[in-house]
Amino acid sequence: MQTVEDILKEIRPEFDFAASENFIDDGMLDSYDIVTLVSDLDKAYGISISGLDIVPENFQNIASIQKLLRKYGKP
Amino acid sequence: MNLTFSHRRISGLLAVVPANERSFVEDMANFNSPPARSLKLMKVMGYDKHRVVDGPVCASDLVCFGMEHLFASGALARDGCDALIVVTQSPDYIMPPTSSVIQGRLGLKQDMFCLDINQGCAGFLIGLFQAFSLLEQPALRKVALVNVDVMSRKTSPRDRNSYPLIGDAASIAIVERSQDGTAIHANLKMDGTRRDALMIPAGGLRLPCSPETAVMEDDGENNFRAKDNLRMDGSAVFNFVQVEVPPMIRDLLQAAQAGMEDVDYFLFHQPNRFMLHKLADQMNVPYEKMPSNIVELYGNSSGVTIPMAIVHNLRERLLTGSIQACLAGFGVGLTWSSMLMRLGPLDFCELIDYK
């Protein structure tokens, strides 16, 4: 299974996501990338992230994305 | 607020779209984004084709074309309507009202009510409320409810936030009294404190158009638009829809003492496929009961997407039968509204190209 970092790399291969604490403030993800990321996470993990959870604070860094995935029962 | 009507029906629906079709792939050349990223976004959002006017076509041009089609086909008599309601955010002029322009161009009778409403994505429902209310007057028998927008003319082609999803279109719904006394339930909410989420900053008296308002600016996400153009805060609008729409539908069904299973189709405004699928998932509605194909085939035409969804997806069924429909519109204002009503059988249900 693809890791969160793999998925992020596919969307924006030019960035080192592990080195950032805030993807949005660091200009690594814009609102369109978040939409793409949600769609890719949905497919990769067989879930549907609720529209209510699609807010910037859930996509700030790898830890916040992993925390969101745990809400949907995914490691 | 909750609203209830009865003895009202939509007796016919016509949608008019410009023949000029653009594709997302054509538009991509204008965006300051690598093609691979744009193509990925296209798949997720459901962008593909959209119909936009070619040249200085105005709202009244689309509507007059559609009304003349109805007159010529015998679906409507030229003196057959007692009221003309035009819902648009892209009027021909600041004044006079576009409804008066259409009345004059078509040579409609003087003994009628012409009214413009400045509304967008919830405009089909707002228009229906007005049409239903006008029919309280015995002098009115038939109301033509027109939804029309040519927003492509106010949208920057370099704004991938808005341009690829914008579609121009008009719809004409004929609204009449009905023998059927079944309640039509509806609700409506508005929040003007969030009005900046969808706006065209310049062009009114607050900020008249000038060379300064025509200057293109970067929104920080590589979208270039001027103050003369449509400005949409996509994240704020997405969040608004996800937060407000599901409870609105729950309230509507509760007021109607109906369940989700009683609804044949959820015919919602169509901003993009991703947003609608997230709504459907949240509400546990199968995608096939909530059509999301209008934005990818024709574009998002504000208040016209609901009638377009009906005409494109349900034409054959509604010419002979009927469905229980849950309609919902949400957008500029901000405004959100829904309605549970029986649709069909319709006297006409058609989509034509404006040439």
Characterise this structure.
The complex is a heterodimer of chains A (75) and B (355). In chain A, 44% of the residues lie in helices and 0% in strands. Chain A has three helices and no strands. Chain A has helices at 4-11, 31-45, 62-71. Chain B has 355 residues and is α/β, with parallel strands linked by helices. Chain B has nine helices and 17 strands. Chain B has helices at 24-28, 35-45, 59-73, 98-106, 123-134, 234-255, 273-283, 294-297, 305-320; strands spanning 2-5, 8-18, 21-23, 49-51, 83-87, 113-117, 142-149, 169-177, 184-190, 198-199, 217-218, 224-225, 231-232, 265-268, 323-331, 335-343, 348-354. In chain B, the strands form five sheets. A six-stranded mixed β-sheet of chain B has the order 6-5-7-8-2-17, with helices on both faces. In chain B, strands 1-9-16-15-14 form a five-stranded mixed β-sheet, sandwiched between helices. The model of chain B has no long low-confidence stretch (mean pLDDT 96). The interface between A and B is medium-sized, with 15 and 21 residues.
What is the rounded Rg of chain A? 11 Å
What is the SS-derived class of chain A? Answer: mainly alpha
Main pleated-sheet profile of chain A: none
Can you count the helices of chain A?
A: 3
How far from one another are the termini of chain A?
11 Å
Overall mean pLDDT score of chain B?
A: 96
Number of strands of chain B: 17
The string of secondary-structure elements of chain A, in order, is HHH
What sort of overall outline of chain B do the alpha carbons produce when their principal axes are compared? Answer: globular
Stretches with pLDDT under 50, minimum 5 residues of chain A: none
- If strands are numbered along the chain, what order do they take across the biggest sheet of chain B? 6-5-7-8-2-17
Strand content of chain A: under 5%
Total strand count of chain A, please?
Answer: 0
